[in-house]
Specification:
- The complex is a heterodimer of chains A (372) and B (304).
- With 372 residues, chain A is an alpha/beta fold.
- Chain A folds into 2 domains: 232 residues, no CATH class; 104 residues, abc type-2 transporter like fold.
- Chain A is built from 14 helices and 4 strands.
- In chain A, strand 1, helix 3 and strand 2 form a beta-alpha-beta unit.
- In chain A, helix 7 runs parallel beside helix 10, helix 7 packs antiparallel against helix 11 and helix 13 packs antiparallel against helix 14.
- The longest helix of chain A has 32 residues.
- The mean pLDDT of chain A is 85.
- Chain B is an alpha/beta fold and 304 residues long.
- Chain B folds into 2 domains: 219 residues, Rossmann fold, CATH 3.40.50.300; 78 residues, Alpha-Beta Plaits, CATH 3.30.70.
- Chain B is built from 10 helices and 14 strands.
- Chain B has a 6-stranded mixed sheet with strand order 6-7-8-3-9-10, sandwiched between helices. A 4-stranded antiparallel sheet of chain B has the order 2-1-4-5, covered by helices on one side.
- The radius of gyration of chain B is 22 Å and the shape is globular.
- The chains are: A alpha/beta (372), B alpha/beta (304).
- The interface between A and B is medium-sized, with 24 and 29 residues.
């Protein structure tokens, strides 16, 4: 016990003497949590639109006004020929072309039917898909307005209409930040936890201090605990800072019990630190450790369910997410923060992460040799 | 009783295609309280041997005991009672002198005060800088700190891997004086060095080359066993002299040695050599030289 105390004292001293680590630990969460949620926006805004108006009627103008006033589109050009408009797409100055035919108003009023043409630049798939669907819904809305203006409905509508009314549960205003911020916080914790431990031990290998430790009677178990505990404490500290930022900047107050989140975070951190330890037992220098953890982080992030829904991934990718600790924590933190899930609801995830923690740490302890 | 017994240790590195045998069956004993030098050039296997004896490395074959404990089975006991100072400075550079010393004292379950007597001589020299970070010390001071840390738990056997490499001449001399004093405290010391001149300061030395032991003896014994006549020759044209000396059939070996060339003769061919050199037209100065460890090492390298 006394040995452990001194090992911890030494680790904390070293951490607090390294200004770059301290900076990393405190500035990283602040920057990531304040900047990223604004940038990682699912909504597509500022879609560049080119309108080709052959009609120049009041109807076509009001349609264009309606589109531009939606806030999603920027009218970059208003031309008379398709070729000119297509040039804009080629120059990447336009994402969408809307062509209004010459007889737009006439057809609409007389034939109660008119056609317009939409061309989409599909280089950015998300932007193309979302942009065209926004535009379509605006045109539909417009269509409805025109119909109410011109067509007298019979007392009983001959067509059967189903009107859909939405109600968003747990995030009523569909504020994406409410589910992005907790997710980013999870990533942050994972990165700090795994990278710091991996690099810390590899650094001892590189400098050769581990050699001096290895000839001492220090027990493997103590040495590894001495490495884990400081970063565990730091991880929880960063997590708390993150939760504070979420509350201050985004007004995110967990619907569930904050202790449930902390309990999960505590167990989760042990799993992540175990991963870092494991990396460090295999890597010989800091570059190797960085590359391995970078590689794993990419997989963890992209298959973690933060940016893309796990349910929409192909089967094999879903299978991989089962082995991804990040996906469990993202799921849990969203459940607890948004839905107010209790400990009983997350017990499956909690036990899985506990399993991860035991396997990863156990593997690391077995693989760390005091002699070669 | 011997403090260290090494029995036919073999260590190979690499796998399958490129196997390097770093230690090719080394055996020797070190007596209790002895200052034992392992002298050899870089790559001779000194560090590998030390790492095996300090339980950091497993030998492929052979056995070894340190203080009566087997290096494989009783590694835990060995770690309690040996001090190891690796060739590369491996203390925490971001901790201060005092913190390093305290840290190593506590992980050996002791305190600095308890064994202060042992390190007093050495530590008192760096004590004025005890709040300086270890990374900011000069080379000689780092060496002293590393030795203090290796001694803090009063080890019975001390392993020093090239402690004087990269240290200035004054510090080297001081360091060897410290070792002599430590020896008086009854600590067995194994020290490796590539410097032949340090060999004469040891009680016994093992000359090691390419993982093989060339000779084990007292420094005097090694010198006495030289057994051949050694001459020192100086001339106006040293470069050609060496070439010509090597071609002379009376000469077994010739190599530069300071301002002279050392010449090992096959038999008593001093007169023949003189006339050979006169014939070549050299203005030379020839005198008999007393062999030292380096001469012995060169001779042993030649024969093995």
């Amino acid at each position: 016990m006394r040995t452990l105390k001194f090992l911890l004292q030494k680790e904390f001293r070293q951490i607090f003497r390294d200004p770059s680590i301290l900076r990393l630990i405190f500035i990283m969460p602040v920057i990531q949590l304040i900047m990223l949620p604004f940038a990682a926006d699912y909504e597509i805004k500022n879609i560049k639109l080119v309108v080709i108006d052959h009609d120049h009627s009041s109807y076509s103008r009001s349609l264009v006004t309606k589109i531009t006033s939606s806030g999603y589109f920027i009218l970059t050009d208003y031309t008379g020929s398709f070729n000119q408009a297509f040039e804009k797409i080629e120059q990447d100055k336009a994402d969408l072309i809307l062509e209004i035919p010459a007889s737009f108003e006439k057809d609409l009023v007389k034939e109660s039917e008119s056609k317009i043409f939409m061309a989409v630049n599909a280089i950015n798939g998300v932007k193309a898909g979302l942009g065209s669907s926004y535009l379509r819904s605006i045109i539909q809305e417009y269509n409805k307005e025109v119909r109410t203006e011109w067509i007298q409905f019979p007392r009983f509508n001959p067509e059967t209409n189903i009107e859909v009314v939405y109600s968003n549960w747990f995030n009523s205003s569909m504020n994406y930040k409410v589910f992005m911020v907790p997710g980013i916080l999870v990533l942050l914790l994972t990165m700090v936890g795994a990278n710091l431990t991996a690099i810390n031990i590899v650094k001892e290998k590189e400098i050769g201090t581990i050699e001096q430790i290895n000839v001492t009677p220090v027990r493997k178990f103590h040495f590894i605990l001495g490495k884990l505990i400081p970063f565990w404490v730091l991880g929880l500290l960063i997590f708390s800072i993150g939760l504070g930022i979420a509350r201050l900047f985004y007004g995110i107050i967990p619907a569930g019990n904050i202790l449930t989140i902390y309990l999960f975070a505590a167990v989760y951190l042990f799993a992540v630190l175990g991963l870092g330890l494991l990396i460090s037992t295999y890597a010989d220098n800091q570059q190797q450790a960085m590359l391995i953890s970078f590689f794993l982080m990419m997989i963890f992030i992209l298959l973690g369910g933060l940016y893309t829904s796990i349910d929409s991934m192909p089967g094999w990718a879903q299978a991989i997410t089962k082995a991804n600790p990040v996906s469990y924590f993202i799921e849990v933190i969203r459940m607890v923060v948004l839905k107010g899930s209790s400990l009983a609801d997350i017990k499956y995830q909690l036990l899985t992460i506990l399993g991860f923690a035991i396997v990863l740490n156990g593997w690391a302890v077995v693989n760390y040799h005091k002699r070669s | 009783m011997s403090a260290v017994i090494i029995n036919n240790i073999i260590k190979r590195y690499g796998s399958k295609k490129a196997v390097i045998t770093a230690l090719q069956g080394i055996s020797f004993d070190v007596k209790q309280g002895e200052l034992f030098g392992i002298i050899g050039p870089d790559g001779a296997g000194k560090t590998s041997l030390f790492r095996i004896l300090t339980t950091l490395l497993l030998a492929d074959e052979g056995t070894a005991t340190v203080d009566g404990f087997d290096v494989v089975k009783d590694y835990k006991s060995i770690r309690q009672r040996v001090g190891y100072m690796p060739g590369k400075f491996s203390l925490y550079q971001d901790l201060t002198v005092k913190e390093n010393l305290d840290f190593f004292a506590t992980i050996f379950n002791t305190t600095v005060e308890e064994n202060y007597v042992l390190i007093k001589d050495i530590y008192s020299q760096i004590e004025p800088f005890k709040d300086r970070k270890a990374g900011k010390l000069s080379g000689g001071m780092k060496q002293k700190l590393a030795l203090s840390c290796a001694l803090i738990h009063r080890p019975s056997v001390l392993f020093l891997d090239e402690p004087t490499t990269g240290v200035d001449a004054v510090s080297r001399k001081e360091f060897w004086e410290m070792l002599t004093r430590l020896k008086e405290q009854g600590i067995t010391i194994l020290v490796s060095t590539p410097y032949m001149d340090e060999a004469s300061l040891c009680d016994r030395v093992a000359l090691i080359q390419s993982g093989k032991i060339l000779s084990i003896n007292t420094p005097q014994g090694i010198v006495d066993s030289f057994g051949k006549k050694l001459l020192a020759v100086k001339s106006n044209d040293m470069l050609h002299l060496l070439k010509d000396l090597k071609q002379c059939k009376e000469v077994e070996d010739a190599y530069p040695f300071g301002e002279y060339h050392h010449v090992v003769l096959k038999k008593d061919g001093e007169e023949l050599l003189k006339s050979y050199l006169e014939q070549k037209g050299y203005l030379f100065k020839l005198k008999e030289a007393k062999p030292n460890i380096e001469d012995c090492f060169m001779a042993l390298m030649k024969t093995s």
